[in-house]
């Protein structure tokens, strides 16, 4: 500290001690002792620089004659209390900030938890198809959550809306009912629940349950309404479907064609039966309900009903079980029943369905007896019998078939029987068999079947389709007969017939040669002699003799011409020397000249080296056909076509004559013409067909297979 002033001792003096007393903050009494002087006491006004500055008093504003003290303080002395105050303030501020931050974090967590809960609540409401709402009638402020309201055109976002906007969500009838209910709730303070019909944004309808309760103040007055709205469309539809299903079940139960009954599993008493069951047993519903089948007498005393009931109670079910029952009239009949254990109102019950199968059972028994008789008859028959299913697989053979083939039933069923068919006949046989099955037609075929001794025997195989009463195809049944002996007899007959035909032809050749070489020559000589006689006697006889000779000559010439024609018919020399084509052309020309009928002869691709028997058979067929045209047809035009094909020679003769009834003529031929043509062609392995219809003409076709390959054609 330094002391300055006008009346202070020399500054070189050293202060011995100072005692200062502050008076009113301005005046200070100072006592001090100097080292080189006595103690002196001074009283002055002392002013402290720090205080003056603190009070904002200038240095030159203090009274004169005082002391002005300029203290040199330490920083702690000057600012210590401020530092303490500042530290305390900082501590308090930090605590307040920490407290505020802590509260803010807690609030943020609370708000986040609230938002999470609101989200969860909104999701739960969405999943449950439910929305919450609140209505303040004083301000007509209606607020609601989204969810179900989101399916409508109603805006559910803040600010609150009027209650009238809710009417857009409901049909007019439902809104009128809801508005009336809400007004009652405001007046009476009652809780309510209404099932209403609402509208979606797409115009479709849905059902909702609108629940509400009254909110009261401390005085008990209703201040607002709040509640929820939940969609129950699916529940409504499910209830409707359930009701419909129950109605359908009730209708099916009452009017079903099967006899239905419902009995208690505990008491075995009838709970209900339908009309078919009444007709089924002869008892009325009133006679059955509340009584057991044993009491009524429907089941025989030794029936298996207790066993069936035990099976049902064990969790099993009955399907198509046959049993006997007694009707009210005392008849014993057979029923086929199915039963199931069900639960109605917590009570186990047995639902049974029965059908009278007495007639069917009797028919089945009759069928079994019939099958036994058929089996006995088929096994006793001397023919080979078989049966096949709709899949073309053989299912049964009689004993004679198995004895003939020497094989077992297991070897023959299915397609096993085809193993015994001769390899050359197998393809054709199976083709006929398959085609008949596809067309559901009866069939007949001949093939060689291996006997038990290894010999192949010719059999005639016939089959007819089987159909059930409802027209369903059930397969085939057929038989086979051994025709080997018949085949051999026919072969012998054919050989004899061929020999007879050849002998007949040879005789015709001989007669034709005799007529041509002998009789015809002599007649020619006679005609020449008569002509010469006529010429020599012309000058000596009169006109009458000359005319007689001329007539005799013409008659002799006509006889010679007829004999020549007859000779050609008996044996055509052109056929032997010029071939079939030239012979047919000559035959056509002669027929046209003789009968004044137009004949067209067309020959195409005919082999030149035909067998004589084939050529002769075809020529005789054409000759006999033209003979029938002249005799019966009265045709104006005839066409003969002879053509060679890769495997056959085909002859076709057609005319535009009057025709005839083909079926009647073939079954009862008036002459031997058709028979002789058929036999001639059959002798060379050919086929013969006839088509004709009254007023449509006639067509005869002959086909002979080629047994050789010919290189040249005419």
Description:
The protein has 19 helices and 26 strands. With 714 residues, it is α+β, with helices and mostly antiparallel strands. The chain has five domains: 2-72, no CATH class; 128-238, PAS domain (Beta-Lactamase); 256-356, Beta-Lactamase; 362-482, PAS domain (Beta-Lactamase, 2-Layer Sandwich), CATH 3.30.450.20; 577-714, Histidine kinase-like ATPase, C-terminal domain (Heat Shock Protein 90, 2-Layer Sandwich), CATH 3.30.565.10. It has a five-stranded antiparallel beta sheet with strand order 8-7-11-10-9, with helices on both faces. Strands 13-12-16-15-14 form a five-stranded antiparallel beta sheet. A hairpin with a 3-residue loop joins strand 2 and strand 3 (27-34). The longest helix has 53 residues, at 75-127.
Task: Describe this structure in a few short sentences.
This protein has about 725 residues and is of the alpha+beta class. The chain contains 19 helices and 26 strands. It folds into five domains: about 70 residues, no CATH class; about 110 residues, PAS domain (Beta-Lactamase, 2-Layer Sandwich); about 100 residues, 2-Layer Sandwich (Beta-Lactamase), CATH 3.30.450.20; about 120 residues, Beta-Lactamase, CATH 3.30.450.20; about 140 residues, 2-Layer Sandwich (Heat Shock Protein 90), CATH 3.30.565.10.
List its traits.
single chain; 714 residues; alpha+beta; Beta-Lactamase; 5 domains; five-stranded antiparallel sheet; 19 helices; 26 strands; 44% helix; elongated; disordered N terminus; disordered C terminus
């Amino acid at each position: 500290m330094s002391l300055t002033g006008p009346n202070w001792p020399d500054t070189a003096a050293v202060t011995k001690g100072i005692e200062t007393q502050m008076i009113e903050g301005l005046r200070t009494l100072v006592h001090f002792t100097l080292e080189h002087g006595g103690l002196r006491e001074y009283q002055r006004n002392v002013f402290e620089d720090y205080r003056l500055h603190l009070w904002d008093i200038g240095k030159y504003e203090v009274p004169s004659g005082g002391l002005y003290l300029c203290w040199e303080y330490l920083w702690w002395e000057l600012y210590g209390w401020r530092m303490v105050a500042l530290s305390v303030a900082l501590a308090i501020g930090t605590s307040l900030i920490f407290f505020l931050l802590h509260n803010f974090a807690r609030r943020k967590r609370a708000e986040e938890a609230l938002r999470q809960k609101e989200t969860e609540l909104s999701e739960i409401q969405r999943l449950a198809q439910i929305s919450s709402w609140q209505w303040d009638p004083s301000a007509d402020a209606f607020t609601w959550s989204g969810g179900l309201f989101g399916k409508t055109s109603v805006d559910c976002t803040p600010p609150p809306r009027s209650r009238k906007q809710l009417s857009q969500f409901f049909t007019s009838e439902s809104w009128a009912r809801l508005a009336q209910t809400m007004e009652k709730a405001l007046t009476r303070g009652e809780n309510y629940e209404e099932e209403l019909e609402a509208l979606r944004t797409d115009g479709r309808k849905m059902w909702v349950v609108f629940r509400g309760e009254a909110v009261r103040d401390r005085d008990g007055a209703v201040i607002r309404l709040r509640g929820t709205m939940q969609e129950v469309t699916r529940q409504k539809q499910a209830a409707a479907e359930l009701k419909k299903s129950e109605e359908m079940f009730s209708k099916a139960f009452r009017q079903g064609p099967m006899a239905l009954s419902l009995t208690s599993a505990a008491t075995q008493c009838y709970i209900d039966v339908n009309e078919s069951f009444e007709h089924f047993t002869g008892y009325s519903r009133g006679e059955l309900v509340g009584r057991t089948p044993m009491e009524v007498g429907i089941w025989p005393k030794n029936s298996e009903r207790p066993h069936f009931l035990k099976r049902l109670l064990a969790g099993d079910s009955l399907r198509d079980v046959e049993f006997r029952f007694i009707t009210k009239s005392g008849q014993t009949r057979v029923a086929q029943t199915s039963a199931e254990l069900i639960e109605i109102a917590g009570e186990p019950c047995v639902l049974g369905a029965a059908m009278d199968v007495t007639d069917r059972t009797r028919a089945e028994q009759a069928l079994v007896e019939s099958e036994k008789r058929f089996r006995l008859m088929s096994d006793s028959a001397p023919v080979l019998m078989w049966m096949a299913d709709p899949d073309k697989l053989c299912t049964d053979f009689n004993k004679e078939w198995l004895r003939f083939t020497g094989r077992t039933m297991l070897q023959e069923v299915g397609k096993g029987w085809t193993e015994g068919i001769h390899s050359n006949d197998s393809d054709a046989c199976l083709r006929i068999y398959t085609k008949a099955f596809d067309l559901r037609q009866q069939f007949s075929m001949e093939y060689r079947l291996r006997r038990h001794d290894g010999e192949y025997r010719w059999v005639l195989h016939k089959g007819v389709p089987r159909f059930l009463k409802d027209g369903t195809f059930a397969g085939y049944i057929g038989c086979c007969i051994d025709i080997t002996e018949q085949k051999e007899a026919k072969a012998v007959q054919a050989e004899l017939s061929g020999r007879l035909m050849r002998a007949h032809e040879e005789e015709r050749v001989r007669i034709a040669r005799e007529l041509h070489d002998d009789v015809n020559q002599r007649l020619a000589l006679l005609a020449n002699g008569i002509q010469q006689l006529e010429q020599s006697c012309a000058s000596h006889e009169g006109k009458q003799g000359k005319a007689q000779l001329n007539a005799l000559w013409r008659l002799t010439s006509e006889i010679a011409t007829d004999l020549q024609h007859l000779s050609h018919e008996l044996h055509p020399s052109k056929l032997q020397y010029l071939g079939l084509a030239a012979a047919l052309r000559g035959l056509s020309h002669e027929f046209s000249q003789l009968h004044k009928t137009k004949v067209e002869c067309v020959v195409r691709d005919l082999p030149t080296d035909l067998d004589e028997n084939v050529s002769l058979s075809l020529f005789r067929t054409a000759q006999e056909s033209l003979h029938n045209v002249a005799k019966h047809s009265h045709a104006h035009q005839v066409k003969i076509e002879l053509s060679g094909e890769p495997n056959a020679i085909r002859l076709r003769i057609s005319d535009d004559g009057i025709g005839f009834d083909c079926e009647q003529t073939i079954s009862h031929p008036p002459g031997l013409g058709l028979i002789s043509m058929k036999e001639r062609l059959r002798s060379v392995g050919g086929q013969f067909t006839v088509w004709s219809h009254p007023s449509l003409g006639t067509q005869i076709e002959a086909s002979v297979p080629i047994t050789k390959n010919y290189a040249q054609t005419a």
